[in-house]
Amino acid sequence: MSLSGVLLGCALAVDSWWQYPLFWWAMVTTIGFQVLSNFANDYGDGVKGTDAKRKGEARMVASGLITAQKMKAAVWVTGLFTFFSATIVVFMAFGQQNFILSFLFFNLTLLALWAAVRYTVGGGAYGYSGWGDVFVFAFFGLLAVLGSSVLFIKQIDFYFLFPAITVGLLSVGVLNLNNMRDADQDRLIGKRTLAVRMGFHTAKIYHYVLLLGAFVSALLFASLKANELWNWCFALAFIPLGMHLIRVQKISDPADFDSELKKVALSTFLYALLMALFF
């Protein structure tokens, strides 16, 4: 999921995006943020007891495979590496010639580091109060696509807002599946995700809206910018997503949402890849 937005943003901004070292550094930085977030979530949920009866894959701290202290150290090490990598990206993209953009992206780096950790870590973790959906939409969608395109073109192309919304909504869809799966356990420990707040059936409707909204946004961008028939190849990524929605409609056991997570994540990456190759 994390690679999808950056891949798409870079590919929309420049041709032959794979030939640019800046693209690869941006991808490495994105992986760093994702690993940091995963480690921080494992640590934060582990020390809070949220993962004690987790239905999905086992977590390291909660299962006892690693101590909380060692996971906290891993968070620090990954955070420092990601900060270093992001600094290289900012320097390569803007240098001293674009001080304002360098300053802006440096502060966005700090904000992204904070967001990756504070989703579950600390007493005021925003993932526990229902704000996770907003942050995921902003960072995985808007910032990933628009921000990575600015690395190359040094300005915002507002047409790119449509694919950014598509990736953002699909990313929130993955989070919503995760939250629907864990809603019963989250409710018991006081984690008030949107899935907990809305309830099982309303959370399903919310999920339909997210994915259909992503499809509409993708269609709007194509209708405005597509010049050739092959530009519409991205629609192939929505075929498995349509099948996924049919599956979600039939699910009655929250544990069954777990198998759907990868379907949406891989379909999102397929959308980004098809756009990068054929648009």
Describe the structure.
The protein has helices spanning 2-13, 21-48, 60-63, 68-94, 99-118, 132-153, 161-181, 183-189, 194-198, 200-225, 238-250, 258-278. Helix 2 (21-48) packs parallel to helix 5 (99-118) and helix 6 runs antiparallel to helix 7 (161-181). The longest helix has 28 residues, at 21-48. The protein has 279 residues and is mainly α. The chain is globular. It has one domain (2-278). Helices cover 74% and strands 0% of the residues.
Based on the model shown, name its key terms.
279 residues, mainly alpha, 74% helix
Short description:
The chain has 279 residues and is mostly helical.
Number of strands: 0
Computed over alpha carbons, the radius of gyration is: 19 Å
Largest sheet: none
**How helical, in percent, are the residues?**
over 70%
Q: In whole angstroms, how far apart are the ends?
A: 20 Å
Shape: globular
List SSEs in N-to-C order: HHHHHHHHHHHH
| Estimated share of beta-strand residues | under 5%
Query: Which whole number gives the mean pLDDT?
Result: 94
Low-confidence stretches: none
Produce the secondary structure layout.
Elements: H1 2-13, H2 21-48, H3 60-63, H4 68-94, H5 99-118, H6 132-153, H7 161-181, H8 183-189, H9 194-198, H10 200-225, H11 238-250, H12 258-278
Helix pairs in contact: 1-2, 1-6, 1-7, 1-12, 2-4, 2-5, 4-5, 6-7, 7-10, 7-12, 10-11, 11-12
